[in-house]
Amino acid sequence: MNGREIHLASRPLGWPSESDFVLAEVAVPEPGPGELLIRNEVMSVDPYMRGRMNEIPSYVTPFEIGRPLEGGAVGKVVESGSAEFAAGDVVLHQAGWREYALVADDAATTVDVTLGPASAYLGVLGMPGLTAYAGILEVASMVPGEVVLVSAAAGAVGSAAGQIARLRGAARVVGSAGSAMKLEYLRSIGFDAAFDYRDGALRRSLRRAAPDGIDVYFDNVGGQQLEVAIGALRPHGRVAMCGAISMYNAEEPPAAPRNLALCMGKRLTLRGFLAGDFAHLRETFVAEASAWLRAGELHYRETVVDGLAAAPGAFLDMMRGGNVGKMLVRL
Amino acid sequence: MNGREIHLASRPLGWPSESDFVLAEVAVPEPGPGELLIRNEVMSVDPYMRGRMNEIPSYVTPFEIGRPLEGGAVGKVVESGSAEFAAGDVVLHQAGWREYALVADDAATTVDVTLGPASAYLGVLGMPGLTAYAGILEVASMVPGEVVLVSAAAGAVGSAAGQIARLRGAARVVGSAGSAMKLEYLRSIGFDAAFDYRDGALRRSLRRAAPDGIDVYFDNVGGQQLEVAIGALRPHGRVAMCGAISMYNAEEPPAAPRNLALCMGKRLTLRGFLAGDFAHLRETFVAEASAWLRAGELHYRETVVDGLAAAPGAFLDMMRGGNVGKMLVRL
What we know:
homodimer, Quinone Oxidoreductase, Chain A, domain 1, Rossmann fold, globular, oxidoreductase activity, acting on the CH-CH group of donors, NAD or NADP as acceptor (chains A, B), ADH_N_2 (chains A, B), NAD(P)-bd_dom_sf (chains A, B), oxidoreductase (chains A, B)
């Protein structure tokens, strides 16, 4: 039996293109002892994957040329060499970008589909949701009554971050995004204000959305929005630095905030983080988030494309902001 | 009786000049009930005063044109309208830049000259020392075994910061400064390595001084040194943002770190602070620092100029890096 997978064909310089990816057909292996063969049903494309396409070692190892890409995926066990799992189990693992995945049993976790659909474990109940939860509550230490700004707010992480802030008592939640449709979406899920970062009047837009300033900035984009947020932060304000999507494809050194000297007088804290450091919160987070889902208080959206061959395009479209909510590929 | 004081004559744009200051002679007032008349003996010039010369409201109110400047000073009570103080008491207060100061009794504190000379309360035992102590231990949360970088390390704050790091168990302390004489001074007070930030090879100099990277950066300067430090910080590294002297006189937006995206992967924290927020540590700090002074383990130097008329020149010289250790004016 054969299965298809997406390999990295070449390392992109600046913006990736379809030609940096190649679809390969390979023989599906037999699971050995302690291994699972999984038929992937849905896979995730996430901004952090862009970093792994570079050769520069980072907090995650670079993808290898001519080898399959990796990333979160949910699938069904078709053959199990492990006593821990049986055929038919629905599991979350990191061997995405392929139809059949061979995975060690300790690298897979069963997902509880009574709490939410399997795909939610790649989004609102998964890594993006935990990122939002840890960023708002642990990294930024948001307390009730504060004003929160989220950039890339219509994405999987941003939409969860804004809603978690609201559900945990923020006085006002403001989001930025890149289209009228996204702004409408943000208002529909409870953001108090939303503005388009592309309209060229960032400072004024933020002032209108948060006239008294902000206490917390959940940063997914870096660059100019970070500078404007630093200007708007009130004393003892905090930035949860989650991502810098405005910089990932930059070939020139990107714009940098020229107003960092405000950090002293305003006693600001800027703190970068990775969701992986908050794995100890996963259980608490899933319990709290699934209760919000059941109560209809936490909303999420998915942008789904079909077929493995569409995965590179889905990744590129997500980097350009083409998705609302979680970008997924259904296999 | 008349006394002299320095008034702000005009608000500097960019670098201040002597003409922004004027020496005025005024009648010395009588202290009313609860007031002290103090003959100032030594006064401080500090980088933060530059910010108060601008009209922009900040964490401290701007100086007023035609009114005396303010700042730390130590003097002797010549006449007391308060039961708390007697003539002859040596007190620390904030009405510097003048020969005679009229001060409310709750704005003055007696200094214990058995712990250190009176002038030390403007430096190593005073606000600069507390700034260093709070920055290293509270803001950066340095733990024994870490590698620490301090910029403007030959100044009052920087020289204390590096030594406090060493005395509290840093594995390696590196300082940057702007002259061979300053680098020599840093080595003489126990810095493990020192480099000249003006030599045009910042990145290489830091790599040589700290080949395995740094854990803590005590930032007094901002700008390009901050960028280089972010590049050298190891995972979970911290920046105590104390000052940005490279920016205070800039008329153009200053250089900004273009590598902030490293904060995510390395989980860096950048935190701005003001010594005023750590007043609760003052007693602990003075006890610990004066014990180090007595034991000969903590060193400090003063650059002293004579006469109130020389104060503007001393301030300008300090902004240009002309001092080693604390810049003081003896009246």
